[in-house]
Design a protein that fits this description.
The structure holds three protein chains of three kinds. Helices cover 47% and strands 14% of the residues of chain A. Chain A is α/β, with parallel strands linked by helices. The relative contact order of chain B is 0.12. Chain B starts with a helix and ends in a 5-residue tail after the last helix. In chain B, α3 (26-57) crosses α15 (268-298), α6 (94-124) runs antiparallel to α12 (206-234) and α6 packs across α14 (252-261). Chain B is mainly alpha-helical. Chain C is mainly α. The chains are: A alpha/beta, B mainly alpha, C mainly alpha. At the B-C interface, α1, α3, α4, α6 and α7 of B face α1, α2, α4, α5 and α6 of C.
Chain lengths: 434, 303, 320
């Protein structure tokens, strides 16, 4: 009996030790496996550096980026680029980037940034100031340069400049509409004449950033502008109301638009289901099948009385992680990707318009004539507010728009903007408690 | 099963009742038919959606855009495997699948070891405070998961383990430990005590009886707990979406959601192909092991 | 099953206090082993739940937002909590929505699950197949259920509109998610209940199986109808089981997240934002751990209240 007691005590101690050992080894395993995921390569003067480039591109965009980077590596044998593909959904992409910054990671060294991010990143101290490289920003479209500027300092370089506009079928709409009202009547006429059409106009009305750019595309046509200090202006109400009426009054847009993003809108247009669509230039490069092929028109949204032609500024920029260990190599990559020849090659392959006015050469226009239209739209494109709080502002505006598109009442637009204006203003002006 | 046992024991003792049951009235036929119709409806509600996603996953992009109807009826005229090819090549769905398998398997192994030990202790070893410990374990199972993600995020960030699947093996224990411990405790309680008592009086230690006698008998219960744990660990989404950042570290449920939100390619055939891939193994597991799962969940529970 | 339990109970030594059967030493050795075996589960669960709880409590009283990483984590007292009760935070609205959703869900699910359990309890050919079919929705991930029903409710790719179109042509292109508040909730409700009713049914089935058939026989001999024996025998004997099922289901509905994220991301507007979804937004999207901490503390309190309510409400009925 006595020996049993001694043995069992020893055994139970061993059990406890075993449990602790299991826990410890699991913790070690965790630490070991995690340290491999955030790599930071040492910088050495003459040997190869590896920098990480984060982008969201899939499909043709991804392939073209890979191609361009191969060219860069060939021109710079000491620099290797590791491409990291993140989500192609802008909201997810943003949170993925932010996770890296919050975790204090030095990678990605260079990353693709939507035009609305640089102000926030700059305020949070996550991006490197480009002043040390004395960049020549005059060669880019000024609207986009402004998006990458915070407190007078440059933080991001325009990579491509995506103006959103109105696509239309030139075989169904003989002359382009010259007013919002005419868009409606043209759409109605086309739907009556051609029963294979499923709707008259397709646009993005899902609860996401793209709904704001779709709105911006029609906004200036009604004399509106998106200023978070006061979004409840007659122009904004008229613009939002037009989109709302397209669904609920004129019935030229289906309620399904509330679930559509750029991809679905493009699919509707390219499949020939709609004569009008509000979307980005990439649609052109995908309009490769009948009946749409060769019948694509692309114009700014036509101005109404008291308005100007409408387009929304989209696009991507390139920026450098503030914690990078390879600032010089990172800047070399940016310079290369934003050089005219590389941008032209990308434009022809993917439909991403160059961010340099100087790249709209005859070579580009002969290869892809629709870029002439893009250049026109670039002169009208309205940017989103450059504000470090833009992402919270955007979330509030998305909520407002999404509730309007789900509300069939005739005054949905005016009442939502009236009641939501104060929230948006507060979000824009918010300073953190600290 | 109990009902069947009770039926068998009741019948011989009450011939009067037996005669009553034997009379088949038209009313009885109607009720039986209605019952079977109800069964069919239930099976349809449970399984038809899976048929629908299988059907949609075998459509091409243009068929999905065209909508349901005409040639694209309940069974479309053309079937194409392009969605499945796409899911594995362009969306690289294989990596998230493997990640999920690693995490779910790892979590199941840890769960079995820890829950068996605890379940046995609570069932047999007379610890003071058994009730309180059991209550704590069950309470932990009710803890709101979304309330945990903030601090766990900060902690993982601190030790540099964000965007890694390995911490999930431990974190998922919050799903699996409570129900596995409870289930195994019930299971151990039902093993006849005489077996162990006999061995103990023969001079074996508690641990020896554990190893040689209890473990072999406990295997069915452990197996059930393992199946349940695997399913629960596999199914998590909240932790995955909060801690995992890049596609190559995603788990399968998280990877599926990227198909619903991808900016330029949101085609239901892709989404449904991924859903089919994730659901088929689970469905097979359940079909194969349904008796075990049901018995495990219902065994000796409510006194 | 009942008889086995009986047998085991008889053989166990009394819990409170001493009398050992095989000798004090064995008893103590057992107990030590028992503590060792039970330690891992307690330690692990405490680490995963207790630590976040404390950390949340700490954060709830400070300013902690990683997007403003340079700012210090100041003590802010109760201001994180009081901000939640302002209309602008959306928390109170989320609470209301979540409560309504929970109540509707548990009532509907309980009734349907009970009917399903009665069906599963019946001994008929094909019962195994019915059980297996019904378990499959429960076994797949919630995300899968949400994606599946998102497909089903899509105007183009889904079956719901196709089916409805046979009754009334315009119904073939109704938009459910994002286009209407009540229709979004219907889709969410269907996806959530379809997945969870089987689990409730299995728990109720367990309770049904423990009721001995003799009780029903006796009642029938006394002339009770099916409905009467259901009301007077089945329901009362199911009370403990119903309470367990309700605790699970209520907490599940209260904390619904996966379905919302996949199907609507809180839209249209804010109308499908639930408490858990708001937590996720605050922590992960807004990186605000102070406000998120406050929300989490409140969420835990609510969950505890629900758990205690059910335990209290059903305890007096239980016979020991």
């Amino acid at each position: 009996m006595g020996s049993t007691k001694r043995v069992s005590r020893g055994r139970s101690v061993r059990w406890r030790a075993g449990a602790i050992a299991v826990a410890a080894s699991l913790a070690a395993l965790t630490a070991a496996c995690s340290s491999s995921s955030s790599s930071s390569s040492a910088v050495s003067a003459s040997s190869t550096q590896t920098i990480t480039f984060a982008e969201s591109g899939l499909g043709t965009e991804g392939m073209q980026t890979a191609k361009a980077i191969k060219g860069f590596e060939a021109a710079n044998p000491n620099i290797k680029v590791n491409i990291q593909v993140l989500s192609s959904d802008s909201t997810t992409y943003l949170s993925q980037l932010e996770h890296n910054f919050i975790a204090g990671s030095s990678t990605p060294d260079v990353f693709e940034s939507d035009v609305t991010y640089p102000a926030k990143f700059a305020q949070a101290g996550w991006v490197l100031s480009l002043a040390q490289f004395s960049p020549n920003m005059g060669q880019y479209f000024p609207h986009e340069v402004a998006a990458g500027t915070y407190n007078g300092t440059y933080y991001a370089v325009p990579w491509f400049d995506n103006p959103e506009g109105l696509f239309y079928r030139t075989d169904l709409i003989k002359t382009p509409p010259t007013s919002p009202a005419q868009v409606v009547s043209d759409a109605e006429a086309a739907m009556k004449a051609d029963k294979t059409l499923k709707e008259g106009i397709a646009f993005e009305a899902d609860k996401y950033e793209g709904a704001i750019t779709a709105f911006l595309t029609v906004d200036s046509a009604f004399g509106g502008s998106l200023n978070p200090q006061n979004i409840d202006t007659p122009g904004n109400v008229a613009a939002l109301n037009w989109l709302h009426a397209a669904i609920y009054q004129y019935h030229i847009a289906p309620t399904a638009v509330t679930g559509w993003e750029e991809g679905q809108v493009e699919q509707e247009f390219v499949s020939g289901y709609t004569p009008f669509a509000i979307d980005y230039p990439f649609v052109e490069s995908l309009a490769t099948a009948a009946p749409v092929k060769g019948n694509v028109g692309y114009i700014p949204f036509p101005a109404g009385p008291g308005g100007t032609p409408g387009s929304a500024l989209g696009g991507e920029m390139l920026a450098i992680n503030a914690k990078t260990a390879h600032a010089a190599a990172a800047w070399k990559l940016i310079e290369y990707l934003t050089s005219p020849s590389v941008e032209i090659a990308r434009a022809i392959a993917t439909g991403d318009p160059p961010s340099l006015p100087g790249a709209y050469t005859s070579q580009l226009l002969s290869a892809a004539p629709y870029f002439a239209a893009v250049k026109t739209l670039n002169t009208y494109s309205a940017p989103r507010p450059v504000n470090p709080n833009y992402l919270t502002v955007s979330a509030d505006i998305q909520t407002i728009f999404s509730s309007v598109f789900a509300n069939s009442a005739a005054n949905a637009a005016s009442s939502a903007l009236a009641s939501g204006a104060a929230t948006v203003k507060a979000a824009a002006n918010a300073t953190p408690a600290g | 099963m109990t009902a069947a046992v009770a039926d068998a024991s009741a019948a011989p003792a009450k011939p009067a009742v037996l005669k009553y049951r034997r009379r088949i009235t038209p009313r009885k036929i109607v009720r039986e038919t209605l019952f079977y119709i109800a069964v069919v409806i239930v099976v349809l509600i449970a399984l038809f959606p899976f048929f629908w996603i299988l059907r949609t996953s075998l459509e091409s992009n243009s068929q999905v855009a065209a909508g349901v109807g005409g040639v694209n009826g309940i069974i479309p005229s053309h079937l194409s495997g392009e969605a499945f090819v796409n899911v594995f090549t362009q969306q690289s769905f294989l990596t998230p699948l493997l990640n999920s398998i690693i995490v779910a398997f790892g979590c199941t192994v840890v769960t079995i070891i820890v829950a068996s030990a605890a379940g046995y202790a609570l069932a047999r070893l007379n610890i003071r405070g058994t009730g309180a410990i059991l209550a704590f374990i069950l309470l932990a199972g009710f803890f709101p998961v979304l309330a945990m993600i903030g601090p766990l995020f900060l902690m993982l960030r601190y030790i540099g383990a964000l965007n890694s699947i390995y911490p999930l093996i431990i974190i998922y224990l919050v799903y699996t430990l409570p129900i596995s411990t409870w289930l195994l405790k019930n299971f151990f309680e039902q093993i006849p005590k005489d077996l162990e008592d006999a061995a103990l009086t023969d001079g074996a230690t508690r641990l020896q009886t554990l190893r040689k006698i209890v473990v072999p008998v406990a295997i069915p219960g452990v197996f059930t707990a393992a199946i349940l744990s695997f399913i629960l660990a596999w199914n998590d989404f909240a932790f995955a979406v909060s801690f995992l950042n890049t596609q190559d570290h995603f788990t399968a449920p998280l990877a599926i959601t990227t198909f619903t939100e991808s900016g330029y390619q949101t085609f239901y055939n892709l989404l449904d192909a991924a859903v089919v891939i994730v659901s088929i193994p689970i469905a097979l597991l359940v079909l194969f092991a349904q008796r075990r799962i049901v018995t495990g969940l219902t065994a000796g529970s409510f006194r | 099953m009942a008889t086995e339990v009986e047998q085991v109970k008889e053989g166990r030594p009394a819990r409170a206090g001493r009398p050992p059967r095989r000798g004090d030493k064995q008893e103590r050795a057992d107990r030590r082993l028992g503590y060792a075996l039970v330690t891992p589960v307690i330690v692990l669960l405490l680490a995963i739940t207790g630590y976040p709880l404390i950390y949340n409590l700490w954060n709830a009283f400070h300013f902690d937002n990683l997007s403003y990483g340079n700012l210090p984590h100041k003590w802010v007292g109760f201001s994180n909590f009081s901000a939640l009760f302002h209309a602008s935070s959306g928390w109170v609205a989320a609470l209301e929505r979540t409560l309504i959703f929970t109540v509707v869900t548990i009532v509907f699910d309980l009734v349907v699950a009970l009917a399903l359990a009665l069906m599963l309890n019946r001994n008929f050919r094909g019962r195994g197949f019915l059980r297996a079919s019904v378990l499959v929705p429960w076994a797949v991930p919630t995300v899968v259920s949400a994606a599946l029903w998102k497909t089903m409710f899509d105007p183009r790719a889904g079956f719901v509109d196709y089916f409805l179109g046979f009754f009334h042509a315009p119904w073939a292109s109704i938009s459910w998610l994002g286009a209407s508040v009540w229709r979004s909730w219907v889709a969410i409700f269907v996806a959530d209940s379809w997945k969870n009713i089987p689990f409730v049914a299995i728990i109720l089935l367990a309770g049904l199986q423990v009721i001995p058939n003799e009780v029903y026989e006796a009642a029938r001999m006394d002339g009770a109808t099916g409905w009467q024996s259901f009301r007077r025998i089945t329901l009362p004997m199911l009370k403990p089981v119903i309470s367990v099922a309700l605790i699970f289901r209520t907490l599940q509905a209260l904390l619904v997240f996966d379905v919302i994220y996949v199907m609507t991301t809180g839209g249209p507007g804010n109308s499908t934002e639930t408490l858990s979804f708001l937590n996720y937004q605050t922590f992960i999207v807004n990186t605000d751990f102070g406000s998120g901490g406050a929300m989490s503390v409140l969420l835990v309190i609510i969950a505890l209240i629900v758990a205690f309510f059910y335990v209290r409400a059903f305890r007096p009925e239980q016979t020991t």
